[in-house]
Structures are given as structure tokens and as C-alpha cells.
Write a structure and sequence with these properties.
The protein is α/β, with parallel strands linked by helices. The chain is 29% helix and 24% strand. Helix 2 runs parallel beside helix 5. The N terminus is likely disordered. It binds zinc ion.
Length: 284
Amino acid sequence: MRLNAICLVLLICSSAMVCPAQPRKSVFVITDAEGVAGICRQEQTEPKDPELRQLLTGEVNAAVDGFLAGGADEVIVWDGHDGSQTLSATTIHPKAKLVIGDIGPRMTFERGYAAVAFLGQHAMAGVRGGIMAHSYSSLGIQNMLLNGKAVGEIETRTALAGSFSIPVIFLSGDRAAVKELHDIVPDAVTAEVKEGLARYTCITLSAAAARELIREKASEAARRIGAVKPYRIEGPVTLQIEYTTRNSLPISAGSHPGSEVVDDRTIRIHGKDLVEAWTRYQAR
Ligand SMILES: [Zn+2]
């Protein structure tokens, strides 16, 4: 049936001599450190730690293999952990492209990827059993609320991608991170590479087993491109950031557009939609 449909398309295209360009299936991968198999202690997340680099690169390359095998045309990997210093063009999968540096509030989503994937992801701040769980900054941010709901990197980035009609199809990380994505995108494919018993205590797969699982699940995820729906948060949006106790908002904190000082270390940012609120937050 499917073969017939493909034959028909080829026939029509060849007779008309004009074929509508098939959109390229680009997968944009966001990497982090705390959700990589074998990483359970804080000092292991130093961006230039040799073991972290090896473990993360192995998982990234397994995911790239999987996405390509599942039908992706292109895989673009953003080195998303702490200053973009963990991945290297010398060891990244030869068929992947590497993004190094700060990518701003829109995360390049306006380039129109077919899908977004999280690799090595951790849960949001405060999650019980979340290995090194935090929301963007362990030291700086106590809590982040989106329209009153606690969120971390998973939900904000999934919703930002959704603002550009891009679905999140895949996540690898610890059990708590997997649950966090499934709560908002039940159809996403996930690879659970470790289980948190406590913040710094985990039961982890070996690097080899994690890579095998990631390759298989990434392939399955790529085959689901088009079936997984983008996750959207409709506007208007209020983003509330509560910083940790050693922080204090600067004198000018309330003077930025859409900003409202709640207390000395809590700010609320309003926007007509998530992209506006997030851009205002990042511009502060
Ligand atoms: Zn992170």
C-alpha cells in the first residue's frame, strides 16, 4: 500500500517534471550532562571532565545513528551544557552538525526543524529522586513557575519548540526526566538510562547499554516524526523566577517591560505569549 503510494508520487512527479520539495527532516538535539548514564556526582558535570566528554559523546553519537536510521535527513546537535564546552568536532558523529555557543531565547527554532530531542536531560528543581535536578541553574534558581506551574528546562523548551510548531520526539535521561516529558508529551519516545535513588545516588546503565538503548529509541522516535504533536502553551504567559537565597534583584529589576518585582529575589515576567515572556526574561 505504502509502496504503491510512493510509486504513484514518483509517477506523478516524473510526468509533471515538477515535484514539490519534500521538507528536510532535521532533528535538533539539545544536550546536557546531568542525565547522561554514569554521571551521578556534581564534579562529574565539569564541562571539560574527560569522562563526561566520553560518556556524553558516546550517547550523542548513538542518538545520531538512531535518528539517521529512522529517517532523519540531518541531525544538528547543540552542546547545551554549561557554556557549550563539552562536545568537540573531532569526536562528534561524522554526519552530525555541531552547534557551539549561546543560541538565545528562540534556540534557533525559527530555522524550522522537523523535531527536537533532549539528550542527557535532568528533571526540574525539587523533584524527589531527580539526579542533580535543577531548573537552568542549581546555584542561582530555586523555582521557576510558568502560569503558576513549576517547570524546568524540559517544559519550557518543549513549549518554546511548540511555539514554532516543532514537536519534541525524544528524551534520554534519568527516570525523573523521562516522567517529566511524558507528563506533557505522552507520545514522545524515551530512553531511561538511570534511576535516581537520591540527588547524588543513582543506579545507572553501563555506557555501552545506554548507547544501545538510545540508538534503538532514537530510531523509533525519528520514525514517529509527524505523529507526535507539538506541545503548546497558549498566551498570555506569566513566568515567575524565584532566585536562591544569596541572590537579590537589582534596583532596576521592575523597570523592564512586563516585569513585576514580587519580593527581593522573585520576579514575575508577563508576555502576550511564551516567546515574548521568555525573550524578556533572557534580555534582563
Ligand atoms: Zn540543564
